[in-house]
Amino acid sequence: MTARTKIVAGNWKMNKTVAEAISLVEQLKKDLAAFSGGEVVLCPPFTALASVAKLLPTSPRIQLGAQNLHPAAQGAFTGEISATMLREAGCRFVIVGHSERRRYFGETDAFLREKLLAAVAAGLRPIFCVGEELPDRESGRWPIHLRSQLQGALHGLPVEVLSEIILAYEPVWAIGTGRNATPEQAQEAHALLRKEMEILHGASIASPLRIQYGGSVTPQNARALLIQPDVDGLLVGGASLNAESFTSILLSVE
Ligand code: 13P
Known about the structure:
Elements: E1 7-11, H1 18-31, E2 39-43, H2 46-55, E3 62-66, H3 83-88, E4 93-96, H4 99-105, H5 109-121, E5 125-130, H6 134-139, H7 142-154, H8 159-162, E6 166-169, H9 183-201, H10 203-206, E7 211-214, H11 222-226, E8 233-236, H12 243-251
Parallel strand pairs: 1-2, 1-8, 2-3, 3-4, 4-5, 5-6, 6-7, 7-8
């Protein structure tokens, strides 16, 4: 089995003013000064990216990510931000296809595919999110749903793009609900995603692929999730907004 470096990302969603972001990052830098458990990515709102970038060292243990991008290089897309702009702001990562973008902003697999291409072309590593809604979990149709999301966005993408992707399994019923997937449910879904990637793109893509789990991750459940063989990291929402809880999650990586 390929050794995969764990990667934990904090998705701040629409939270934190610039001042609040700076104070959180300053605290995290202190708390994580001796941390060596893997890669850490912070995804603040757009308005805080440049200020947070200034606080992070140039060969960082903590790296910067954005929560969204538009696939076009530039142009008349009011309110949107391009991959090049994110790179310029200091980002190395970008979340693509979060269920909140799919649900509230109507983002389709085909559109997400364009975002993946644009992100990698600009030098950003996409954190590509998939995950089923509750009815698909309860009816047992979740594997069909996950396969369809993978195929819909990733079908036929070149190896140079696929090899930059980090996958995030975020069951929609677990996001912000306090009801996380059990470690067994997460492992089962991650193994299925890796198998499907192998079928679609071969073992050379699937085996090193890192798959994060996201959905009601807390300091209490992080370790049990992370020790699953196919759980290569976490995508943390609410618990990443507080230095103490995010640090405690990160320390469970070590
Ligand atoms: P919570 O950790 O708040 O459930 O959010 C998960 C998530 O959506 C991360 O992208």
